[in-house]
# Entry
Amino acid sequence: MKPELRIALLGQGFMGKAHSNAYSQAGHFYDLPYRIRCRLLCGRDEAALAAMADRWGWEETSTDWRSAIARTDIDAVDISLPNHLHAPAAIAAAQAGKIILCEKPLALSLDEAARMVEAARGVPTMVWFNYRRVPAIAFARQLIDEGRLGTIFHYDAAYRQQWGADLSRAATWRMDPALAGSGVADDLLTHLIDTALYLNGPIREGIAITRTFAPNRKVDDACAAMVTFDNGSLGMFEATRFGIGVKNGNAFQIHGAKGMLRFNLERLNHLEFVDATQPSTEQGPRDLLVTDLKHPIFPNFWRPGHIIGYEHTFIAALAEFLDCLSRGADFHPNFADGYEVQKVLDVLQRSATTRQWCTVGASA
# Structure
């Protein structure tokens, strides 16, 4: 019989729902090395907790996340709390010897992130940068690794949402710098940075500007940055909650000596590819439907042409983490990878204040 893995999920919001679905569904698509047991769900709203636990199969609920850390019948702690609680929850879980899964960003500051990495050196960790498990993004990584783009010249990425213009959402914790951090940079920009590091390698330096468009708002609504990569390429990032007309557009475009790749999360199953080694009369974007049984990740789900959705990226991330856990292998992204994202984020946030180029420091 497979060993049991008893989970405590800290957080009952949007990400709590996404993670609950992953725990529920992963065993339907992957031959998991563990029997997942949804032991404890923690949140602030007791009535809503009971309803969520009933819907997703959580055995118990609690309004005290610290209780999950202390319990001996919990093997893994999944942190889906507001950003300011990531560090205290993760450090406490690490000290208790728990397996740790944590939402992004890793922390509110580089110092917090470093302390999390240090505390968790002896335990398996995962950061929920789920977009690495979009088949089209994983296939982009495969094409790059195969040299299909050649020398990379430009990496341009933008994450645009439009909900920041809705002033009725001012009460959310994401609008409080004490709970969320800087704003859109600690939210959408972290996804752009992680995907860039995954696809194009380390970032060397950067310069950024931020803007707050809503009156009296204390966090940034938009951030734009220019960076250089260790491979010599030039990068551009834009993250905004004022991208009116775009609901959830997480996009990148990569130009190399041999071709181009272009992706947008709003067309999650597609990847555009230009092969510049072909005759000029035959060059042009090919819209690839990344749903073949030879594509990465996708074969775990459906037959060719039967598209997947946002939720499948969490399922795939969890399943791959559990596979690595069972084999004692390194999983990525882990806390060390989250720290690399935090280093770039710190550089860009400092640059937005100083209006000067800042250099990314050494690894933890």
About this structure: DSSP finds ten helices and 15 strands in the chain.
